[in-house]
Specification:
The protein is mostly beta strands. The protein has one domain: Single-stranded right-handed beta-helix, Pectin lyase-like (Pectate Lyase C-like, 3 Solenoid), CATH 2.160.20.10. It has two helices and 18 strands. Strand 1, helix 2 and strand 2 form a beta-alpha-beta unit. The N terminus is likely disordered.
Length: 161
């Protein structure tokens, strides 16, 4: 019985470690990493400014080095991040998009980001459920900091101005 438990713990630890995908200075194609990731994988993005429009696929976690250090710049083209079911985005400044974050599937998580300087809403949840916690949503031109339509949104501890 002990051998089985030890083997299970080792395999679980190995699988957990293998699920973290760091982005280095030599691999700045964040979308390619998202496309190759499996549900439950964490893509860890170091500090820097990234000019991107991302589609965060189902169950993938995209984590920056901190909202004050890791910037996703949408270049004025579409939403900066479109998230699908079970996706999580955490620890970024999200700026210069038509919308900052747009949910396209159910139960997306948006945590600890600064969402600012977008032409539309900071976060638009149009048909998908969304959990929005500990974000600063300010300086967006659109009609709302958080815009919902046909969605259930749980928002807590956000600053919206």
């Amino acid at each position: 019985m002990k051998k089985v438990a030890i083997s299970f713990l080792f395999v679980s630890y190995f699988v957990l470690i293998m699920g973290i995908i760091p982005v280095s200075g030599y691999s700045l194609d964040i979308q390619a990493l998202i496309d190759e990731a499996a549900p439950g994988d964490i893509i860890s993005v170091p500090a820097g400014r990234y000019r991107v429009n991302l589609i965060l696929k189902e169950g993938v976690i995209l984590e920056g080095a901190g909202a004050d250090q890791t910037i996703l710049d949408g270049r004025g083209k579409g939403p900066v991040v479109v998230g699908e079911a079970g996706g999580i985005i955490k620890g970024f400044t999200i700026t210069n998009g038509i919308e900052g974050v747009k949910t396209a599937g159910s139960l997306m998580g948006v945590f600890e980001n600064i969402i600012t300087g977008n032409v539309g809403s900071g976060i638009r949840s149009g048909g998908g459920d969304c959990v929005i916690i500990n974000n600063i949503i300010s300086g967006n031109i659109g009609p709302a900091g958080i815009d919902t339509a046909r969605s259930y949104v749980m928002a807590a501890n956000n600053t919206i101005c």
